[in-house]
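Researcher: Please generate the 3D structure of the following complex. Treat every line as part of one assembly.
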Amino acid sequence: MLELKGVSKKWGFLKAVDNVSFTVRPGKSLGYLGPNGAGKSTTIKMLAGLLEPTGGEIIYQGRNIWKNLVWFKARLGYVPEEPAIYSHLSAYDYLMMVGRLRGIKDSVLKPKIKGFLEVFSLGGDMYSEIASFSKGMVQKVLISAALLHDPEILLLDEPLSGLDVSTALVVRELIRHLAAEGRIVIYSSHILEVVEKIASRVIILHKGRIQADDSVDNLRHLMKVPSLEEIFSQLVLQEEPEKAASELLSLMKKNA
Amino acid sequence: MVRLLDKFNLATFVSTSRLIILTRHFFKRLFLNETVFFEEQMIGKVVGVIAILSIFPGYVADALLFKYLLIPESGTAWAETAIFTTLMMVLIGLITLFEWDVIFLAQKDYANLMPLPVRPLTFFSAKFISLIMFLGLFVAGINSLSSVVFAMYLSSSRAYGLLSTFLLFLTHLLVMLAAGAFVFFTMAIIPGIFTILLRGKFFSASF
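Model: Done. Output below.
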């Protein structure tokens, strides 16, 4: 069980994440939603052990992850939002390095990497430098890197970014299977339709605070609206999209 | 107890192999920048740059020791050797200063490596070793020509011919490596002393 207890992160006076608490049990997939600057990626980075919380605790299997970081990271797969990958390496070399640093034996690692890259249609490009890859291809490499060691927890920050439709469908299906097999999946995204289909529960974050935490069906029922998009609009959107769009149009045409 | 020892050995082996993987990785990364991006370009560029840079110390050694072709060296070359060593120490100090940043994790290292189950000490050790290796290679490379000059000029008065030439070449190279190591570790100690004196608070902000 993964548990966040009153987790906060401050940047100077700015509270990026403010007293966030939730629990995710094995076999559950959690959708983590919010507008830009809501604190989603900051929470994910704290969960990945990249940022230390300024307050609160993150507990996994009864242990504080910040006191057992190496142990926790060995159980974690993480797909970051910004793909700042080593572009001078080939996809194969990058995955070999990640796998070896995770302690996977070469005899296991080599066929595994080839398998992942074949499934993601990167078999022909596995020895090419990542610098020559498109955004979607880089994303496939990052997803492979997060899955190589069969993690217990999967943190996905906008994992479908740049992926083509067929690969996105594969990844969506994969996430469902991973949760069904008893893993913890936390999925942070702006794409509400995908979260609606994948997540058994959603958390909506706004200005660093949790605005809603329930299953999509319960939220629909409670708020009496038909879709997650409308739930999201009611909870976090402060300006009307039509009004904002017309304002942008008039600004664009000014002195044109 | 045996199990505990086995566990300890396994943990030591795993962290050692991680250290080797990371050191190799960081060492390669030291040569890659906007102009040298791929590995095959890297080797050619590095050899070329070191070859060009070795001309300067070679020329200085030649200017300092040329007189020993005309007059036999009878233990007086220590003064020229000291001047040359000082010049090399200043050069290595400047390079250490410019390359010092690489001892810390870059944004790409942070993004790619921090989510992995590796101790921060392993990252830091790998960075430190890779920088020492880089400086060692650089010092040996740029002093290759000057070592030949030293060996040629100062062995003429020795009785052992080729052997004494080779020994002088080796000695000069080792002295340069030792001088480089001395400068590097002195410069590495300075941030440590400041951190202790200023209790980390003021000094950490500048890094």
